[in-house]
Amino acid sequence: MPAADDLFRPTAASLQAVPDPAPEQPAPASGTTRKGSSGRVRHDEKMTVYITSDELMDIEHTRLVLRREHGIAADRGRVVREAVALVLAEFEAHGEDSALVRRLRAR
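^ that's the sequence the OP posted. Answer follows.
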């Protein structure tokens, strides 16, 4: 079995730019300017987030399922950016009734 470091080491194939096959994002609600995730582009800003080893394994598992079952090659950063974009859009659309509010209140 490979070492944990080998499981997460990027390969040349994973670093190649992949065209974004996603359909266009729906227009934002009136008065908002939020857009979808940035996808695979060079980013000027950086944010460090600490996660558990189980959360990291869940992200990596999701990335592998996307690749194997859906033919979508995405790095972990893109998976996380897409997830954040979805949560923020749902929060903007549903506010008090959003999954984000419910989950944060439950903790």
